[in-house]
Amino acid sequence: MINNIQVAMPQCGTSHADIMYEVLAEGGITRMMAIFSNLEGETPLGSIRSLRPYYLSIARSYDAIMVHAGASEGAYADLASTGWDHIDGVQGANSGNYYYRVQERINNAGYEHSLFIDMDSAAAYAKAMNCRFQHEDYQNALSFTGEPLTDGTPASQVTVHFRTNKTTSFTYDAGTKLYTGAQYGSDWVDGNDGTALTFRNLLVLGAETKTIDDYGRLAVTLTGKGEGHLIRDGQCVPITWSREKEDMPFTYTLADGSPATLAAGKTYVAVVPPESALDLE
Known about the structure:
2 domains, about 10% helix, single chain, YerB-like fold
């Protein structure tokens, strides 16, 4: 779970992620979840924030170990009921041996925005907590192709709206076939080394989002079906996402029912309320 509030920028370690999810949290802000196929080295990851049930739902769709720092009551209940593998920087046993606070972040952003863990430490902690490192009966539902996306709406400039003032934008480079991200009026970069975050694929998925308590916590419906958009190769096409159960992967289809295929490379996924705007140029 990666902090995405403006005062906590820049994030660290995110340029190494294979997939980046961005979803609304309470208070109109978004929080991100970075999915890694491998964690090696002393690269810092963070700052790490707390878990919500719908982020755990996404992690379950990849059969992934959840790395987080605390959780809402609902998320802790889901972790307990599913027995899902996770490492917790707040209530986890011996978490202080692996997670650490960065004093500069405490001074500039606040204590709650200062928790980090290194890649090697995350893997070591997961091993110490007896997390499962091999998939069991898991099949990736994503489809890939080497062919360009055609017959869509031009999408060289993309702005994703999250029903609030929060937006994330992308600029397409036809030479590299990559979308470079920006938010809060600046390039989206990895604070470890200044690397710009770039993506081969963008997915924007509409999902019912409602407030469930006085604190403003949200429920996001991530099973069933919904509408969305696939953006790559400077083109945008409508898609339908579907998912039968919480422990199953998402599948994506085009209007004719054929699979919506991704290009090999990194992917950004925005989960937004269905009424959220998507600007394309």
